[in-house]
Amino acid sequence: MSIPSIDEVAAAAGVHKSTVSRAFSRPEAVKKQTRDHVLQVAASMGYTMSPLAQALRTKTSTLVPLIVPDITNPFFAELAQAMTAAAGKRGYQLVLGIDDHGGATGGYLQAMQSMYAPFAIIAPFSRIDPADYERFGFGSRLVVMDRIESEHQVSTVTVDSGVGIRLAFDHLVELGHTSIAYVSGIAGTHTAADRRAAYLELAESHDMAPVEFDSGIGAEAGEHGAESLMAMADRPTAVIAANDLVAFGLISALGARGVRVPDDVSVVGFDGLPLGARSNPPLTSVQQPIAEMARIAVELAEHAAEDGRVEHVVLEPSLLVRSSTGPAL
């Protein structure tokens, strides 16, 4: 069954099509009896006004862009799902954009500005300067899900990476591990730098020689980390991965080489994804409060759109202990 046009609804209701349009976009401009009649006829015919058409008429929109670097990373898939729910509860519809190389964000913002998006949320591929996007007209109506260093301030939502790495490190130390490696594999954001810096500081404070593996992105980085680990004569007994996807690749590659997790090597991820409960073994991980991050990001974006407020929220992670960590041999 085809969707009826506004002309067909107007004919069925016995009014001009402009009255149908106003009944949806400016209901206060239509008499209640007429408005109720038009909406009832429209509902019976299965007609709803296109959000884009309504945006063009009113120069306002409920369409909100979320720009992420990699939808194949389960973290960003979880974030998009949580953001969709958070935006929906506040009357917005999420539009997902993917920028896997750092060059497409401007195009998304330009397109969404032409659709009168009230604000935008960015989970960046690498470190960004919000001033670079000022020409697209969002001003302070951007929320960045990373720490930023810029004179052009916008609101940010982050998780305390230092606290997260400390939770993982302390957990492994309590299990008796005295040599702990770190596998990177996330892009050059401030978040990535903060996690690495926290690891190096903790290794130094525990008189451990730092062992870093940084080759590739995501699961590939974990696979390369496993290769480097196996090439060492005196291997660390535990590894902290920069995120869960890196940890999945690491565990898989170690298993293919006959290395048992956690019997031979303990592994900790960083994200706390539900998918980690289904890995083999289930992944111990620093859990990011993804649903809370999404909710707060939408709230901060609304505040910025209302009065230009710039706010910075740093959330605390927690440690989700599963079966990929065990006592040092």
* Strand numbers in spatial order across the main sheet: 2-1-3-4-5-11
Task: Name the structural class.
Answer: alpha/beta
CATH superfamily of the largest domain: Response regulator
Strand and helix order: HHHHEHEHEEEHEHEHEHEEHEE
CATH fold description of the largest domain = Rossmann fold
Low-confidence stretches: none
Distance between the termini: 67 Å
- The CATH architecture of the largest domain is 3-Layer(aba) Sandwich
Strand percentage: 15-25%
Biggest sheet: strands, sense, closure? 6 strands, parallel
Count up the helices.
11
The top-level CATH class of the largest domain is: Alpha Beta
Radius of gyration, rounded? 25 Å
Keywords: DNA-binding, Transcription, Transcription regulation
Protein name: DNA-binding LacI/PurR family transcriptional regulator
GO molecular function: DNA-binding transcription factor activity; transcription cis-regulatory region binding
Domain HTH lacI-type: 4-58
Task: Lay out the secondary structure.
Blueprint: H1 6-13, H2 17-25, H3 32-45, H4 51-58, E1 63-68, H5 74-89, E2 93-98, H6 105-114, E3 120-122, E4 142-144, E5 155-159, H7 161-174, E6 180-183, H8 190-205, E7 211-213, H9 219-230, E8 238-241, H10 244-256, E9 266-271, E10 284-287, H11 290-307, E11 312-315, E12 318-320
